[in-house]
Each structure stands twice: as C-alpha cells, then as structure tokens.
Specification:
This protein is mainly alpha-helical. The chain is built from 14 helices and no strands. The protein has helices at 3-16, 20-39, 48-63, 67-73, 75-78, 81-87, 89-94, 96-101, 103-127, 132-138, 145-155, 159-183, 189-211, 213-241. The longest helix has 29 residues, at 213-241. The relative contact order is 0.11.
C-alpha cells in the first residue's frame, strides 16, 4: 500500500473512532440531498431524505466504513430524537382549535387509519414468513421516527429495519396521497394534509407544508395524533396477540 494511502486509512480510522466522522457524513448527506432535491424540481417521488440516505450509503461504501461503526458515531444525533419527541406536543397544542372543531371527523378517521397502517404491515410480513423481530420492526412504520423507535424497542424489534421501513413508507405514502387526491379530485388541503401526516409521518408532513400552510398544519396534527394513538394501541395489541 502506498504511503499516502496508508496515511488516509490511518486518518479515516482515527476519525471514525470519534463521532465526528458519522456526524459529518450525516450532515453532508442531508445538505447534498436537499440541494439535489431542489435541482430536480422537488419531485414527490424522490424526497430529499431519500437522496440523503443514498448519499450516506455511497459515502460508507467509498470510505469503506462499517455501518455499525457509523451507527455508533451517529448515536449522538439519535439522542436528539428524545427532545424531538417532546417537541411534537407543540404542533398538537397549536392545532388544538382544529381538534376541538373537528373532533368527530378525527375520531372516525384517525383510529381506523392508524390501526390499518400497522395491521396490513403485520399481515404482509406474516404471510411472507417474517420473524417476530421483523414484525415488531414493521408495525410502527407509519409513526414518526422518535416515537416509532421507542415502540420498536419496546416490542423487541430492530431499529435499522424500522428506519428502512420508515423511509419507504414516507416516500410511498407521499407519492400515493398525491396521485389519489388528483385522481379522486380532492382539493381540500385539510384532507390532503391530514392523510399525509397519518400515513407519511415526517416525510409526508414536509410535503404537506410545500402544498400550503393549512395542509402542513393538518399534517402535523395527523402525525402527532397517529404517534400518540399508536404508542398506546400497538404495545397493548402485541401483548394480546402474545407476540
């Protein structure tokens, strides 16, 4: 191995021994993903978070950094999900007037939607012969990441599998809500935003704010209530099913 390459390897190993490399990779991928997303014209089928994830994979492969090493270093960023979970109470408080005014539609739509989002994932996983660990990782896939991680750990699932499921769910929910709302000629931003928040968690909420402030507000409401409901509902169902 040439001396300069050996020096680069030593530098890489030194940086990966601290959280600096993982944090730098994550932030670089985030900004690069958002930049490319803007350049592509903000397509609904390819959000910035998906591009950022692909950039992270590319950098790990090019730099030959083991994922477990990266995950350990990125743990400092994961710690921020705790305050982020608490901060979800802010949009709920801000939308309390919507909850009071529309409590009947919310009562009749949110619980069935949240239950179905978990149950169809469990059904498909069970039909495919998935293990209890995989099922526990897929069940909270429609919940925003800070809450979903806590649910998955409680159920005995895998966080890496969950994160992949969250990404796929957010992208697909954003795409299909957009397509179906056009096909069904639904132009009420409250309905579109609420559907994006329930099904697409944070990725759907970002898309909703691109549509309008009203859609974004109802997406925040849907995302927060779905997380709250699922955190209470799913562990109970897990116990009843004996999983």
């Amino acid at each position: 191995m040439p001396e300069w390459m050996h020096a680069l390897v030593m530098l890489r190993d030194h940086l990966t021994a601290t959280p600096i490399a993982a944090i730098a990779i994550t932030l670089s991928a985030f900004f690069a993903g958002n930049w490319l997303f803007q350049k592509m014209g903000r397509p609904t089928w390819c959000p910035g978070i998906l591009l950022a994830a692909l950039f992270v994979v590319l950098m790990l492969v090019v730099l030959q950094i083991d994922y477990r090493v990266y995950q350990t270093g990125a743990g400092w960023l994961v710690l921020l999900l705790g305050p982020a979970t608490v901060a979800l109470g802010v949009p709920l408080f801000q939308q309390i007037h919507h909850i009071r005014a529309l409590w009947k539609p919310i009562l009749f739509t949110l619980p069935p939607a949240a239950i179905l989002a978990a149950l169809y994932a469990l059904l498909l996983g069970w039909l495919a012969g998935a293990s209890p660990e995989v099922l526990a990782s897929l069940a909270p896939k429609s919940v925003t990441a800070p809450i979903a991680m806590g649910i998955t750990e409680q159920l005995g699932g895998s966080i890496p599998i969950l994160m992949g499921a969250l990404l796929i769910t957010g992208v697909m929910a954003t795409l299909w809500v957009n397509l179906l709302s056009n096909w069904l000629k639904i132009d009420d931003h409250r309905v579109i935003g609420f559907a994006l928040g329930i099904n697409g968690h944070a990725i759907g909420t970002v898309r909703a704010f691109e549509i309008s402030p009203t859609a974004g507000a109802f997406a925040s409401l849907g995302m927060g209530l779905t997380g709250l409901f699922t955190a209470l509902f799913l562990p109970l169902v897990w116990i009843l099913l004996g999983l």
